[in-house]
Amino acid sequence: MANSSCSDVKVLGAWPSPFVTRVRIALNIKSVKYEFLEEALGSKSQLLLQSNPVYKKIPVLIHGGKPISESLIIVQYIDEVWSSGPSILPSDPYDRAIERFWAAYVDDKIFPSMKLINTAQGEEKAAIVEQVTEGLVLLEEAFQKSSKGKAFFGGDRIGFLDIAFGSMLGWLRAIEKMGGVKLLDEAKTPGLVQWAESLCADGAVKGIIPDTEKLVEFAKILVKMKGVPLGKN
Amino acid sequence: MAEVKLFRTWSSTFALRIVWALEVKGIEYDMIYEDLSNKSSMLLQYNPVYKKVPVLLHKGKPISESFVILEYIEETWTSKTPSLLPGDPYQRAMARFWAKFGDDKILPLIWEAFIKQGKDQEEALIAAHENLKYLEVELRGKKFLGGETVGFADLTFGWLANLVSVFEEVAGVTLIDHEKFPLLLTWMKNFMDAPKIRETWPPRDKLINKYRALRETLIAKEPK
């Protein structure tokens, strides 16, 4: 399974989506070449509807004609198929459980709350920001335990939780900017501040996480298009 | 004293998944029943983030979240059969996909259909059926979602076999009918009767009472 031709692996996605970012980082870690098929904003291609009829959402990985959906499931698939490349999940079952737990926490708690910051105001906004910051402090603790003094949750190399959480950094920065709030800061989450820098500089990640400015502009376009800001899609 | 402990409640469908996994694989474990209105200090210590069941404690190390626990069991007791996940990565991805789909779509929609009334209930039921259609198709030619034996996705959908008839009796509505979903109903029966699984069902009359009381409370809270 080491060498697959580019056409063998396709990713249906869109550049702003952090879930798509996860898949691209994972493929980069494994040095897998793929064809990126960008979905146009506001419409869903026939291929997408065919490949993910249940959710009709990106990302979808199509490997040898077979589609896989749901970003974290795709990342695990990539790890298992291209097993000769660097491992994404650690080998110890308990360490794997910890990473899976926190990855689910990012999806269930952190990201949904982050999106709400955009549309909230006054006291409600302050409460949500507090909620997110508390969640990030928990992730900071998890980072200290997991990294054991190294750069990433995965240790020396980027792993599953680095991908799951790191993919959110673009939007995290954009939301900080749009909302005039600080989510990751030196005082409360020093490890994560450092981690974010290391992650964004990594070869597998560079150029994949969208620019903060571009995301801010995109968020404005979303509002114009749907009359609906980021938090409500 | 087993090296595995499971924190559960008598009725938690998520904790039942773990009971099933441990039973099916023949892994020895101790059960610790929690009263969620009065959580033990142990539970709060072992699951500080969510403070919920199930929590699996293995050699003193806690794992929470049912999907995470199921994967942990599968990866730790590798010599214990049956395997919950197939060997092929694509089939594994499919099993995980269906399991997630169950919790993201089916569970909340069936729950909505159970606790609502009138038009709200009708709409929830339509949405539930739209999604259950995918499951019906997936079951073609299969005894279980995992094939011949119960697998990962079967365990996560197992609550259907347990609770749908309870919900139907309490709410007085048919949630899954055999005209539209013959394969699903067959699957529910097969799962209900599967060895190791059937011994674990919470008492039906207790479930009826619990969900009747819960439904009444929720309906009373609805704005008129």
UniProtKB/TrEMBL annotation, chain A:
Its EC number is 2.5.1.18. Keywords: Cytoplasm, Detoxification, Transferase. InterPro entries: Glutathione-S-Trfase_C-like (IPR010987), Glutathione_S-Trfase (IPR040079), Glutathione_S-Trfase_N (IPR004045), GST_C_Tau (IPR045074), Omega/Tau-like (IPR045073). It is an enzyme of class 2 (transferase). The keyword Cytoplasm applies. It is found in: Cytoplasm, Cytosol. Residues 92-218 form the GST C-terminal domain. One of its GO terms (molecular function) is glutathione transferase activity. Pfam families: GST_C_2, GST_N. GO terms for cellular component: cytosol. GO terms for biological process: glutathione metabolic process; toxin catabolic process. It comes from the Eukaryota. The keyword Iron-sulfur does not apply. Transmembrane segments: none annotated. Residues 7-86 form the GST N-terminal domain. It catalyses: RX + glutathione = an S-substituted glutathione + a halide anion + H(+). Is involved in the conjugation of reduced glutathione to a wide number of exogenous and endogenous hydrophobic electrophiles. Belongs to the GST superfamily. Tau family. This is Glutathione S-transferase. It comes from Carya illinoinensis. The lineage of its organism: Eukaryota, Viridiplantae, Streptophyta, Embryophyta, Tracheophyta.
From TrEMBL, chain B:
The keyword Signal applies. It catalyses: RX + glutathione = an S-substituted glutathione + a halide anion + H(+). This is glutathione transferase. Coiled coil: none annotated. Its EC number is 2.5.1.18. Belongs to the GST superfamily. Pfam families: GST_C, GST_N. Keywords: Signal, Transferase. CDD domains: GST_C_Tau (cd03185), GST_N_Tau (cd03058). Residues 2-81 form the GST N-terminal domain. Residues 88-214 form the GST C-terminal domain. GO terms for cellular component: cytoplasm. Residues 1-21 form the signal peptide. It comes from Carya illinoinensis. Transmembrane segments: none annotated. PANTHER family: GLUTATHIONE S-TRANSFERASE, GST, SUPERFAMILY, GST DOMAIN CONTAINING (PTHR11260), GLUTATHIONE TRANSFERASE (PTHR11260:SF729). InterPro entries: Glutathione-S-Trfase_C-like, Glutathione_S-Trfase, Glutathione_S-Trfase_N, GST_C, GST_C_Tau, Omega/Tau-like.
